Amino acid sequence: MLKKYHLLFLIIGILLAAFIVWYFSNIVIYVLVSVVLSFIGHPLLKYLDKIKIGKFKIPHSLNAFITLLVILFVFVCFIWFFVPLITNQANMISNININETGDYFKDNITVIQGFLIKHNIINADETIISAIQAQIESVISIATFSNVFKNLLSATGSFFMGTFSIIFITFFFLRDEHMFSNFIILIVPEKYEKEVVHVLTQCKSLLSRYFIGLILELISMMILITIGLSILGVKNALIIGFLGGLMNIIPYLGPIIGASMGVVMGVTTTLSLGMYDQVGFFALGIIAVFIIANLIDNILLQPLIYSSSIKARPIEIFLVIIMGGTIAGIPGMILAIPSYTILRVVAKEFLSRFRLVKKLTEKI
Questions:
Q1: What residues does 52 pair with on adjacent strands?
Q2: Rounded to whole angstroms, what are the CA distances from 254 to 88, 284, 292, 306, 344?
Q3: Nearest 5°: phi and psi at 24?
C-alpha cells in the first residue's frame, strides 16, 4: 500500500519543502550566506588550528571566533575606506555647472536632443539639459551619505537582525564544520547516508575553492582597473576600480555594467573640474582600461577559477550562466555556477549510469 503511493508522498514532500523554503526565505538566505562565509573562513581556521605555542594549543572555538573577527574586520575596512570615497564622488557631481557645461557642448547637445525627441526618449517640450539636471539631482539624492544613512535607519530592525543572524550562524558553522552536513544527513533516508556524505564533502571542497578563487579574481580586477585608471590620471580611479571589480561577480554582464558606471563617474568628475576638453579622452581611456582588464580576466583569471576550482569546461559554464540568467536574471547568473557544481556532484553520485552524466562529471 505504501509503495503504491510512494511517488505521491515524494511529490508532496518536495512541494512542502519548497513551500517552507519560500515562506522562510529570509532565514534560508541567512543560512546560505553563513555557509559561504564559513567556506571562505575554513582555510584560515585550519591554519590557526595547527599553531602551537610550546605545548599550548589555541582552543578550536577561539580560533573560530578569531576567524570570524578577521572576516568582519575585512568587511568593515571596505566600508570604512570606500564610504568617504563615495561621499566625495557625490559632492563632485553636485559641483557640476550645468549651464556652463551646456554652453560648451551646445552643438553636440542639439544633435543628441533632436535624436532623443525623434525616438520619443524625451518629450518635445523637454530639453536635454533639464533631463540631465533632473538625473544628476536624482543621483545626488541617492549618493549623498546622509540620505543613505536615513534609508538605513528606516530599515534598522531588519538590517541589524539579518547581520546579527549571519554572524551568529557563521560562528557555529566555523566552530563545527560538519553542522550543516549533519543537518542535511538527518533529513535524507538512512540508506543513502553514505552517498550523501560523499556528495557534501565533494561540494564543500569544490565550492570552497570556487568562492576563494572568486574573491581573488574580484580583488585582482579591482587592482588592475585602479592601476590602469591611475596611469591615465583619472581622479576617482580607486572608487571606479572598486565598483568595476565588484561588478565582475555578475558573469558576462558585470564588466559592461562596471564599465558603464566607470564612464559615468569619470565623465562627471571631469565635468565637475571644468575639464570639458578632456571628457572624450577620459571616457575612451576608461573603456580601454576595462577592455584590457577583462581580457586579462578572461584569458588568465577565469580559466584558473572556473576550470580548476569546479572542474568544468568553459562551454558548460557559458551555457549554465545563460540558463541561470534566463530563469532568474542577474541573481540567477550569480548563483548559476555554485548550483551547477552541486548538481554535477549529486548527479555523479546517484546518476552515474547515464553516459551524459559520466561525460559531464568525468573531471570531478
A1: 57
A2: 24, 19, 15, 16, 25
A3: -105, 40
| Strand ranges in 122-279 using DSSP code E only, listed in sequence order | none
Domain housing 278: 196-364
The cell 590602469 sits on which residue?
A: 228
pTM above 0.70, yes or no: no
First-to-final CA distance of the chain: 40
Is position 98 within any domain? no
Residues 98 and 100: their CA atoms lie apart, in Å, by: 6
Q: Is 362 inside a domain boundary?
A: yes
User: How far apart (Å, rounded) are the C-alpha atoms in residues 49 and 232?
Assistant: 46
- The cell for 127 is 530639453
Q: What would the 3-class secondary structure string for 234-297 be?
A: CCCHHHHHHHHHHHHHCCCHHHHHHHHHHHHHHHHHHHHCCCHHHHHHHHHHHHHHHHHHHHHH
Q: Which residues pair with 53 in a beta bridge?
A: 56
The C-alpha torsion from 104 through 110 and 113 to 114, rounded to 10°, is -170
Q: What domain count does the chain have? A: 1
Cα atoms in the Cβ-side hemisphere of radius 13 Å centred on 151:
8
Domain annotation covers residue 102? no
- Give the residue ranges of the chain where pLDDT is below 50: 1-2, 140, 142-146, 148-149, 152-153
Per residue in 177-232, pLDDT (tens digit) is 777 777 777 777 777 778 888 888 888 788 878 888 888 888 889 999 999 999 98
Q: How far apart are alpha carbons 74 and 80 in whole angstroms?
A: 10
Residue with cell string 576567524 = 67
- Residue at 310 is within a domain: yes
